[in-house]
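Open question from group meeting: does this chain pack into something compact, or does most of it stay loose? Before anyone orders reagents, we agreed to write out a predicted structure and look at it together. Recording both the input and the output here so the notebook holds the full record.
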Amino acid sequence: MALDKAPRVLVVEDSLTQSRQICYLLEDSGFEVEAAEHGKEAMARLAQAVPDIIVTDLEMPEMNGLELVEAVRREYATVPVVLITAHGSEDIAALALRKGASSYVPKVFLVDDLVPTLQNLLSVTQAERQQQRALECLQQSESLFVLDSDVARVPPLVGYLDGLLARLGFCDATGRMRVGVALHEALLNAIYHGNLEASSELRQQDESAYHELVRRRRQEAPYKDRRVYFQAKLSPSEIVCSVRDEGPGFDPASLPDPFDPANLERIGGRGLLLIRTFMDNVTHNAKGNEITLVKQRETCADKGTK
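Structure tokens returned:
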């Protein structure tokens, strides 16, 4: 395990004998160690200095291991917590893992398993920190995704981009949500209206007929063989996304004004209204089978709130 400096471990254990054993074991393996007797003391120490990792017993006075896991997850989410479990505490340990603990080591295997467990976790967290440092140097990133007409692929793709924006600090949560909604609408439009050629007018008139047409065309040529091309270009100042389908296209000039009150209650105008509200610039190509959406970094959080 190659680390720039000795990793700091906070050991939380109310048994003095057990605490000393764990501390000696970790110090002999090159860790810098400090100890706390229970969860409340551990949280007080965290307020003074945040360690690289926490090792905690489950059964303690004041604040037990499960409560500590929840508190750390809430206030110091990036700090991994490793539980030391005794025989008979398996159910509580499983609950703690669901609450946010990173791993556990049974007391009977403490000598053999504790150090490797911490080393593995620290390797993971170090890799994440290095990735974050690399992202701070990012000047431009470009990705191309090719989708079939399965709309279930859309949320994971939007989620991937949301995670990238979050790691870059490009938007706050509200800004990322707006970008995600706009991209989601653009991708669905490309699948339904572009590749499958299911019109908004049909949906406005007969919802069930619309969905039946969509279902049928997913099985029929040429509709089922068409693809959607999603390209995202990300720089420190903006994100530019284009969504292109393989349908026949349409005349962009024929699009109704989504901001016209007469169109606000139409199903077909809702997606475009959201896209134009949440993005800074929206354009279509001449054929009408590609839409380009631009969001500037400085307006990402407050666009649409004015």
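Observations to bring back to the group:
The chain has two domains: 8-135, 141-299.
The chain has a mean pLDDT of 85.
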